[in-house]
Structures are given as C-alpha cells and as structure tokens.
Specification:
It is built from 18 helices and 5 strands. Strands 2-1-3-5-4 form a 5-stranded mixed beta sheet, with helices on both faces. The longest helix is centred in the first third of the chain and has 35 residues. 33% of the residues are buried. It has 378 residues and is mainly alpha-helical. Strand 4 and strand 5 form a beta hairpin.
Length: 378
Amino acid sequence: TPSGIVILSIFAWAASEFDVGDRLQRMPPALSRVIGAGVALVFVISLASSVYLARAYMQDNRIDTVFPVDVANYMIDQGIQGRIFNQYRIGGYLIYRLSPASQVYIDGRTGILYPVDHFYRYKDAERSADALRTEIEKYDIDLAVLFNLQRYYSLVRDTGVLKLDYVGNRYSLFRRDDPNFPVLGDLLASPACWNAGMSAALEAEQTKAAQVLPTNSFLKPSFIKFMVDYSKSADRTAFIGKLQIDEQWSDSRLRFTAYQALSANLDAMANDLFTEITDKVFSDYLGVALAQARLGKWKAAEQSLDDATRQTVSYNPSEIKILRGLLVQIRNNNTLELFDDAYIDRIAGETSPTDESVIPRLPQVSAFCPEIRMAPAL
C-alpha cells in the first residue's frame, strides 16, 4: 500500500509538471490513446512488481517460524515419506502436514500417547549417536528432521545411517536413501575432515543446492560457494590469509575456515575465527585452545579448556583424548591453575587403557576428524 501511494504520487506529479493533459489533447486521438495505455501499463507493472516482492517477503516470513514449514513443503513436493526422528517441539506440526504418509518419533503427548521412558530415550538419542542408532534400528526410521546446529549434523553423521538431504532456514532433513548432500553433511559435522578430493563432489552438490534449497537456507549462496572456491584455489593458504571476517559469516563458515587456518598454520587467524563462533560446541573450545597453545599462550589455552568443560559437554572419546593431550602439553610448559593431575588421570581412563602420560607434541588437526562410521549392510 505505501509503495502504491508513492508510485501514484510520482505519476501525479509528473503529469502536472509536464502538463500532460494539455499535451495529450493536442495530439491525434490514436497517439494519445497509445501514450495513455503506455503510461497505464508502466503504472500497473510498477504496482505489480511491488505486490510480487511483498508476497515474496511474506512467504519468507512464513517460512522463518519455529516450525519446519520449508522442510515439510519439500517432502510433500518430492513425495518423501517414512518414519521420522524429530525434535520434540515439532512433532505435532509434522503430523499436521505429513500424516498419514509419514509417522513421527515423538510429539507433545508424553504421558498420554508416549510413556515417559520413551521421552527419556529421545533425550538420550539427541545426545548420543549410539543411542540414536539404536532407535533408528528399533523403529526402522528412514528420516530425521533436526535443528541446523553443528551438534546435530555430527550426531546424525556418527550414526552412519542417515545423510543430509535438505537444509532449510531452521531445520535440516536427513534421509537413509539417496541423500542430496552427503559430503556437505559430513563437512558440517566435522569441517576438519575437508580434503582436496572432495572438490568435484562439492561442485556437484552446489549445483543441486541451486535446484532444491530455498533462498533463505543458510547454505545458499555464500557458504557452499565459499567451500567450492576454497577447494578449487591453487594456493589455499593465501586464499585463507586474505579473508576478511565480518558479521555476516555464519558459525558454520567460521568453523570451517578456522580448521583450514589451523591446517595452514595461521594460528592467530584460527584463534580469532573460533572466538567469533556464537553457538560453540566442545570441539570449538578445543580448536581455539590448540591455536593458543601453538602461539605459546598457555594460560589462555587452559582458560579455553576450562570454558569447554564448564559450558559444554562431550560424549566423544576422540575429543576427550584431544582435551587430555592439550592439558598435558600445557602442564609441560606452564603451571596448571584451573586443572589438576587427578583430573588429567581421570579423563585418561575414559579414552585409552594405554599409558600416555608423556605426549610428545600437541594434537594434530587431523585428530579433529574422527573416522566416519559406515552404515550397516541391509
């Protein structure tokens, strides 16, 4: 409406300024009708374009809700059906949009339809890949709809069963069969696992993303393009070194770039990148601690590890092993103030029965790339 008022006012001003009425009266009737029709057409096109943009913005706003509207639309359009492991808060919405063709794992009827024990298993499955795999096998689950968070990408990847198929504004869809973005999904889960051999697959997935992902998916357009450009770069160290971080960078882009900076020994840059991540996971604190340790900032590294153990939790043995390796190196170079030897000995028992009391060097970046579990044979 405001746009229409502005457009109408501009036309009214132009008509009065140039005495359009008088000029049209002096013209031949046929020519005046053509000009009048042209002016009306321009006016209508201007209004129509404003209405089109307004509708597009309204559609984006409708998608940007607490519910996976875009994921549900995609599943319906593509005929994707099956049993879904889903976040608790969206179970009712998925039933509303996808039932009876698809069934959800849980919704808000705990204590009515679902026993409390089922809710506890759901919470375990949200935290542990082994627990999630057990539920997938028990209920023959084909799909998962989860928040766009690194811990969920990592959780699903570690099951070795489901892969990334679609990324919306807030939620992602994972599926067992023929997923669209298996490589991107693995890199969102563990960006330290990038290698040059992924370049061709990333380009193919970039093309597919342009075809299936919504305009407001956080993967489009900059994140995938950035990964492809990096993969194709002749001098990747120079590529990373020239980057300018800004507030538009997503956590996923910051995280991916931080690991590449660590691999290129750009430790100060890696420290800054990991620090900028808003929704940090346990491995982010380990990454920034490794960068600080490489820079000889032992107290800062110990503080980062203290933040990790206080603000997040890890159930991943490889991350606990990295934590211990960093603590041992900090202890070898500086007096520990926030941890003690008893803590280091205790976490040693959680990772390996072998004696690793003397670790000769800091953990390598490759330690952040766990072995990807393969899906069991059907």
